[in-house]
C-alpha cells in the first residue's frame, strides 16, 4: 500500500499548482479609490497607535 501511495504527493502538488495558476491568471477587479481609502484608513489607525512616527 505504501508503494502505491507515493504518487499522492506530486499529484497533490500538481493539483495545488493548477488551482493556484488558474486563480492568479483570472482578471481581478481593481478599484483604486477603495485601495487608497483603505490605505489611508490603515495609516490613520497606525498613526493613533504610534503618534509622531512617519
Automatic annotation (TrEMBL):
This is Uncharacterized protein. It comes from Streptomyces lavendulocolor. It comes from the Bacteria.
